[in-house]
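User: Show me a protein chain along with its predicted structure.
Assistant: Here is one chain, sequence first, then C-alpha cells.
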Amino acid sequence: MSKLPKKNQFLDVSDYGRPVAKVIAQSLKNTLFTPIHVTIAFIFSGLIAITSMLHHFYWAAAFFLILKSILDAADGELARIKNTPSYTGRYLDSVADIILNLFIFLGIWHITNGSLLFTIIAFCGLQLQGTLYNYYYVILRNKYHGDTTSRIFETETPQALNGEKQRHVNLLFSIYKICYGLFDKIIYQLDPKAVEVKKLPNWFMTAVSSFGLGFQLLLISVMLVLNLEPYIIPFFIGYSFFIFVFIVIRRMLIP
C-alpha cells in the first residue's frame, strides 16, 4: 500500500527500501507484531549502526543504517495493512528519527575529530532538508487523499485514534514539537504559499525526495564504506544550499 493514490505517485529516491518493507509487513500481517514493534526494531538497528560506526566497522554501520531505513518504511506499511493508523506511532517514529540522526552526526564528529560547531550545523541542515521534503510530501498526500496521519500544520495535539491512548499522543506530540517545531516554522516561513499550489509535479517531488531520510542515510552509508567519513559533515552543510534552490524553483515555476 502507498501513502498516495497510484496515479499521483512519483519516483521517491529516498524510499528504495519500500519493496522489502512491504514483504516484511506482509509477513507480519497475521501476527501479534504491531507497527510500534517495528519502530522499536528500527531504533535498535540505528543504535547498532552508531555503535558499529564508533568502532570503525563501517560496512556493518552501513548495513544497519539501510536496515533502519527499510524498517522505518515497514512500520507504516504494517499500519496500513492492518488498518491501525495511530498518532502514537507517527510521533514515535519521528522522535526516534531525529534522536538517532543527532547521535549519528555526533558519532561522525567523534570518529573524525572534526568541529562540533560544524557538526551541529550539518545536523540542522539535514533536518531542514528532511522537513522541506516532508512539508511538500504531506501537502501532496492531503491534496490527493493519501495517508493523512501526518498533518501539514502540526500546531495542535490531535485526537487519539481507535486503539491508542490520548495521554500517549499528548506526550509524544509534546516531544515532537520540541524536536521539530523550530524546523517546521523555518520551512513554512520560507515557503508559506506551497499549501495553495494546485499540483506538485512528479519531477519536482522526485528531485526533492533526495532530501528524504532514507536517501540521506544511504549517502552516509556509501561515504562510510568508501572511507570518506571526514567529508560527511561538509557535504551535508553544502547540500543544505539546495533547500533554497528547491524553494525558488517551487515559487517561480509551480505557482
